[in-house]
Amino acid sequence: MRIFAIGRNYAEHIKELNNERPDEPVIFTKPDTAVIRNNAPFYYPEFSKDVHHEVELVLRVSKEGKNIQDKFASKYYDAIGIGIDFTARDLQQKAKEKGLPWDIAKGFNGSAPLSDKFLLVSDFKDLKNINFSLSINGELRQQGNTSLMLFDFDYIISYLSKFFTLRTGDLIFTGTPKGVGPVKVGDRLAAYIENEKLLEFDVK
Ligand code: MG
Q: How close is the Cα of 132 to the center of ligand 1, in Å?
Protein backbone atom coordinates (compact mmCIF):
# COMPACT_ATOMS: atom_id res chain seq x y z
CA MET A 1 0.00 0.00 0.00
CA ARG A 2 1.31 3.42 -0.90
CA ILE A 3 0.11 6.81 0.25
CA PHE A 4 -0.01 9.60 -2.29
CA ALA A 5 -0.95 13.12 -1.35
CA ILE A 6 -1.96 16.26 -3.20
CA GLY A 7 -0.71 19.65 -2.05
CA ARG A 8 -2.34 23.01 -2.79
CA ASN A 9 -5.68 21.72 -3.98
CA TYR A 10 -7.93 24.34 -2.36
CA ALA A 11 -7.52 27.99 -3.37
CA GLU A 12 -8.18 29.48 0.07
CA HIS A 13 -5.53 27.23 1.63
CA ILE A 14 -2.99 28.25 -1.04
CA LYS A 15 -3.62 31.88 -0.05
CA GLU A 16 -3.19 31.32 3.67
CA LEU A 17 0.30 29.86 3.10
CA ASN A 18 1.21 32.42 0.40
CA ASN A 19 1.84 29.66 -2.12
CA GLU A 20 1.48 29.83 -5.89
CA ARG A 21 -1.57 28.26 -7.51
CA PRO A 22 -0.27 25.18 -9.37
CA ASP A 23 -0.98 24.38 -13.05
CA GLU A 24 -0.97 20.67 -12.22
CA PRO A 25 -1.48 18.85 -8.90
CA VAL A 26 1.45 19.00 -6.48
CA ILE A 27 2.27 15.39 -5.58
CA PHE A 28 4.10 13.98 -2.61
CA THR A 29 4.08 10.63 -0.81
CA LYS A 30 4.16 9.32 2.73
CA PRO A 31 5.51 5.91 3.78
CA ASP A 32 3.04 3.40 5.23
CA THR A 33 4.73 3.88 8.63
CA ALA A 34 3.03 7.30 8.72
CA VAL A 35 -0.41 5.74 9.16
CA ILE A 36 -2.15 5.70 12.55
CA ARG A 37 -5.40 3.73 12.81
CA ASN A 38 -7.92 2.70 15.46
CA ASN A 39 -8.07 6.28 16.75
CA ALA A 40 -4.69 5.69 18.41
CA PRO A 41 -2.97 8.80 19.78
CA PHE A 42 -0.56 10.98 17.84
CA TYR A 43 2.69 11.53 19.71
CA TYR A 44 4.03 15.02 19.17
CA PRO A 45 7.52 14.62 17.65
CA GLU A 46 10.54 16.16 19.35
CA PHE A 47 12.04 17.42 16.08
CA SER A 48 9.33 20.01 15.40
CA LYS A 49 7.81 22.93 17.25
CA ASP A 50 5.11 23.63 14.70
CA VAL A 51 3.12 20.55 13.66
CA HIS A 52 0.00 21.59 11.71
CA HIS A 53 -3.23 19.70 11.12
CA GLU A 54 -4.51 19.38 7.54
CA VAL A 55 -7.80 17.50 7.34
CA GLU A 56 -8.28 15.74 3.99
CA LEU A 57 -10.58 13.35 2.20
CA VAL A 58 -8.76 10.13 1.33
CA LEU A 59 -9.52 8.02 -1.74
CA ARG A 60 -9.07 4.27 -1.71
CA VAL A 61 -7.85 2.82 -4.99
CA SER A 62 -9.86 -0.25 -5.99
CA LYS A 63 -8.20 -1.40 -9.20
CA GLU A 64 -4.71 -1.47 -10.67
CA GLY A 65 -4.07 0.95 -13.50
CA LYS A 66 -1.70 3.33 -15.22
CA ASN A 67 -2.21 6.07 -17.80
CA ILE A 68 -5.88 6.13 -16.82
CA GLN A 69 -7.97 8.51 -18.89
CA ASP A 70 -10.02 11.06 -17.01
CA LYS A 71 -13.27 9.58 -18.35
CA PHE A 72 -12.47 6.15 -16.88
CA ALA A 73 -10.93 7.39 -13.63
CA SER A 74 -14.06 6.91 -11.54
CA LYS A 75 -13.75 3.13 -11.98
CA TYR A 76 -10.46 3.13 -10.06
CA TYR A 77 -11.59 4.24 -6.59
CA ASP A 78 -14.45 2.88 -4.55
CA ALA A 79 -14.38 4.51 -1.12
CA ILE A 80 -13.62 7.74 0.69
CA GLY A 81 -12.23 8.09 4.18
CA ILE A 82 -10.82 10.98 6.13
CA GLY A 83 -7.33 11.58 7.43
CA ILE A 84 -4.97 14.18 8.80
CA ASP A 85 -1.93 15.15 6.75
CA PHE A 86 0.20 16.23 9.72
CA THR A 87 2.91 18.60 8.57
CA ALA A 88 5.97 19.78 10.47
CA ARG A 89 5.53 23.31 9.11
CA ASP A 90 8.90 24.52 10.46
CA LEU A 91 10.77 21.72 8.69
CA GLN A 92 8.70 22.19 5.54
CA GLN A 93 9.40 25.93 5.52
CA LYS A 94 13.15 25.31 5.72
CA ALA A 95 12.94 22.76 2.90
CA LYS A 96 10.88 25.13 0.74
CA GLU A 97 13.36 27.97 1.23
CA LYS A 98 16.19 25.75 0.04
CA GLY A 99 14.18 24.07 -2.72
CA LEU A 100 14.63 20.70 -1.00
CA PRO A 101 12.17 17.78 -0.73
CA TRP A 102 9.46 17.71 1.94
CA ASP A 103 9.78 14.08 2.97
CA ILE A 104 10.68 14.50 6.64
CA ALA A 105 8.18 17.34 7.08
CA LYS A 106 5.29 15.28 5.66
CA GLY A 107 6.18 11.61 6.04
CA PHE A 108 7.40 11.20 9.59
CA ASN A 109 6.05 8.46 11.89
CA GLY A 110 2.41 9.03 12.70
CA SER A 111 1.92 11.85 10.20
CA ALA A 112 -1.15 10.19 8.65
CA PRO A 113 -3.95 9.36 11.11
CA LEU A 114 -6.69 7.70 9.09
CA SER A 115 -10.30 6.72 9.65
CA ASP A 116 -10.93 3.00 9.98
CA LYS A 117 -14.24 3.36 8.20
CA PHE A 118 -14.38 4.40 4.57
CA LEU A 119 -17.67 5.39 2.94
CA LEU A 120 -18.56 3.80 -0.38
CA VAL A 121 -18.41 6.13 -3.37
CA SER A 122 -21.73 4.66 -4.49
CA ASP A 123 -23.37 5.99 -1.30
CA PHE A 124 -22.63 9.62 -2.17
CA LYS A 125 -25.19 11.57 -4.18
CA ASP A 126 -22.61 13.96 -5.64
CA LEU A 127 -18.84 13.61 -5.30
CA LYS A 128 -18.50 17.29 -6.17
CA ASN A 129 -20.48 18.32 -3.11
CA ILE A 130 -19.06 16.51 -0.07
CA ASN A 131 -18.69 18.42 3.17
CA PHE A 132 -15.92 17.50 5.59
CA SER A 133 -14.50 19.11 8.70
CA LEU A 134 -12.14 19.00 11.63
CA SER A 135 -12.79 20.07 15.18
CA ILE A 136 -10.27 20.40 17.98
CA ASN A 137 -11.46 20.12 21.56
CA GLY A 138 -15.00 20.51 20.25
CA GLU A 139 -14.31 23.71 18.30
CA LEU A 140 -14.68 23.76 14.50
CA ARG A 141 -11.28 24.50 12.89
CA GLN A 142 -11.45 23.41 9.25
CA GLN A 143 -14.40 23.01 6.96
CA GLY A 144 -14.19 21.99 3.31
CA ASN A 145 -16.37 21.04 0.39
CA THR A 146 -15.18 19.11 -2.65
CA SER A 147 -16.72 21.74 -4.95
CA LEU A 148 -13.77 23.94 -3.95
CA MET A 149 -11.06 21.56 -5.18
CA LEU A 150 -8.84 22.83 -7.98
CA PHE A 151 -8.38 19.25 -9.22
CA ASP A 152 -11.23 16.79 -8.71
CA PHE A 153 -10.95 13.10 -7.80
CA ASP A 154 -11.01 11.90 -11.42
CA TYR A 155 -8.32 14.34 -12.49
CA ILE A 156 -6.13 13.35 -9.54
CA ILE A 157 -6.42 9.64 -10.45
CA SER A 158 -5.70 10.32 -14.08
CA TYR A 159 -2.74 12.61 -13.35
CA LEU A 160 -1.13 10.37 -10.71
CA SER A 161 -1.44 7.32 -12.93
CA LYS A 162 0.72 8.96 -15.60
CA PHE A 163 3.69 8.64 -13.28
CA PHE A 164 2.80 5.83 -10.86
CA THR A 165 0.99 2.57 -11.45
CA LEU A 166 -1.90 2.70 -9.00
CA ARG A 167 -2.60 -0.48 -7.10
CA THR A 168 -5.60 -1.76 -5.19
CA GLY A 169 -5.44 -0.49 -1.63
CA ASP A 170 -3.33 2.59 -2.35
CA LEU A 171 -4.55 5.72 -0.59
CA ILE A 172 -4.67 9.27 -1.88
CA PHE A 173 -4.90 12.31 0.39
CA THR A 174 -6.70 14.85 -1.77
CA GLY A 175 -5.67 18.17 -0.22
CA THR A 176 -6.72 20.37 2.65
CA PRO A 177 -9.11 23.33 2.79
CA LYS A 178 -8.25 26.57 4.60
CA GLY A 179 -7.87 26.77 8.35
CA VAL A 180 -4.68 24.78 8.93
CA GLY A 181 -2.90 25.50 12.17
CA PRO A 182 -0.80 24.09 14.99
CA VAL A 183 -1.79 21.28 17.34
CA LYS A 184 -0.51 20.86 20.87
CA VAL A 185 -0.19 18.10 23.42
CA GLY A 186 -3.57 17.54 25.06
CA ASP A 187 -5.65 18.39 21.97
CA ARG A 188 -8.43 16.03 20.88
CA LEU A 189 -9.07 16.02 17.13
CA ALA A 190 -12.28 14.81 15.49
CA ALA A 191 -12.81 14.58 11.73
CA TYR A 192 -16.15 14.32 9.96
CA ILE A 193 -17.56 13.57 6.53
CA GLU A 194 -20.89 15.35 6.42
CA ASN A 195 -22.17 14.81 9.97
CA GLU A 196 -20.52 11.46 10.60
CA LYS A 197 -17.54 11.39 12.94
CA LEU A 198 -15.06 8.95 11.39
CA LEU A 199 -11.83 9.75 13.21
CA GLU A 200 -11.09 10.93 16.74
CA PHE A 201 -7.80 10.86 18.61
CA ASP A 202 -5.62 12.65 21.13
CA VAL A 203 -2.31 14.43 20.73
CA LYS A 204 0.08 13.17 23.41
MG1 MG B 1 -2.04 18.32 2.83
A: 14
> How far apart are the CA of 54 and the centre of ligand 1, in A?
5
pTM, rounded to two decimals = 0.96
Q: How far apart are CA 148 and CA 151, in angstroms?
A: 9
Residue type, 54: E
What's the gap in Å between 103 CA and the centre of ligand 1?
13
pLDDT in tens, 80-94: 999 999 999 999 999
The shares of helix, strand and coil residues in the chain, as percent rounded to the nearest 5, are: 25, 35, 40
142 CA from centroid of ligand 1 (Å): 12
* Cβ–Cβ < 8 Å for 14, 45: no
Q: Which amino acid is at 39?
A: N
How far is residue 3's CA from residue 169's CA, in Å, rounded to a whole number? 9
In angstroms, what is the span from residue 73 Cα to ligand 1's centroid?
Answer: 22
Q: Ligand 1 center to residue 8 CA distance, Å?
A: 7
Q: Domain 3-202 sits in which CATH superfamily?
A: Fumarylacetoacetase-like, C-terminal domain (3.90.850.10)
Q: Domain locations in the chain?
A: 3-202
Instruction: Give the distance (Å) from ligand 1 centre to CA of residue 71.
Output: 26
Beta-carbon neighbour count of residue 81 at 10 Å? 21
